[in-house]
Amino acid sequence: MYPEVGFDLDRTLALLRRELDAVGIPYTEQFGRSSLVATVNPEKTHFTIGIRADIDALPMQEAAGREYGSLIDGKMHACGHDAHTAIALATVRRLYEMRDRISCRVKVIFQAAEEYSTSGAKWMVEDGLMEGIDCVVALHCDSSYDVGSVALAPAEQNAVSHGFRLHFFGRCAHVASQHKGVDAIMMAVRAYTSLEMMIAKEIDGRESVVFNIGAIHGGVTNNIVSDSCELFGTLRTHTAATDEMIIGRIKAICEATALSAGGSFTFEEVKYYPVVYNDPTVTARLREAAVQTLGENQVLPKKSRSMGGEDFSYMTQQKPGAMLRLGIRNAACGITAGIHESNFDIDEHALGVGVDLFVQFVLDNMQGIAGLPAVGHTV
Fold this sequence. Notes:
This protein has 379 residues and is an alpha/beta fold. It has eight helices and 16 strands. The strands form four sheets. An eight-stranded mixed β-sheet has the order 1-2-4-3-5-16-6-15, with helices on both faces. It has a four-stranded antiparallel β-sheet with strand order 10-12-8-13, covered by helices on one side. It has a two-stranded antiparallel ribbon with strand order 7-14. Helix 2 (81-97) packs across helix 8, helix 4 (184-202) runs antiparallel to helix 5 and helix 6 (280-294) packs across helix 8. The chain is elongated and about 80 Å long.
């Protein structure tokens, strides 16, 4: 009901501190920004399991009519991160209560800014988070699957996600003397059309590519030739090589467009998420825990590789890990909306599923995992 965005998570962090302090679970805020890592059995360093939850919300308006809906205008948990946080918090509390039975160390990671232009996971990794972790697991709410089920698969899970701003600069003039100006909006419109044509005609049809300009900002009023215009876009591909090639073409097309109009152009990268790679060994162990928790019939193969972005990838680049999809759908209750939709919701029975699964994974693997690579996988 009180969603917060990016790194501005004062209320969320206060809740986490309060709950952890009440139980006596030690934690640190030394990694990244507005993030917290709670530890069970800090002295048992021979093998460490990481469990990650993202804790931020989205800057969008929630559909009205729910008694438990967002009370913060223009913000909502439309991606299920509140559920991820609740699951991780309940998991660390249960593990702490049974810590004498657990022969390994567990670090539960509450990470900021997964939905933000700056990756919270990247900052945590750069501060050394993964140096003391041997493997890391996570889950994500998914309305493609019914509550009570989970889905997972090894290898690549999603896309390279690349966010960017295209800035066009011209020269102001009164429209009565528009020949004295250089129209930045015109440059942006020309470039947009050329970029869509490039995606349609220059990319191999066998490649998985999503390109979208989601925002355009330019000008101040109707009788002035605008001297600046910005396009805010995203590119999703399944390989770093395809991403690099398309970004190169975007820059070349925009530069040529600006030059031909007598203006200038700059490219600003605002977000880059690599591909999440599910290590086959960790994925197999996570599947075993899910089967024990839910039964064979409720553990499904992930339907397909997605075009979504996810900064858990920065952690799986450092150490072997895996992310599973947590079923939250309940059509009988009208819970069918996808993530990033204003009426997104979950069947809360999924929360207990996530907790039970994570606890089982720790119990199954607290002696270590044979054959586990020392480092993660870069795609």
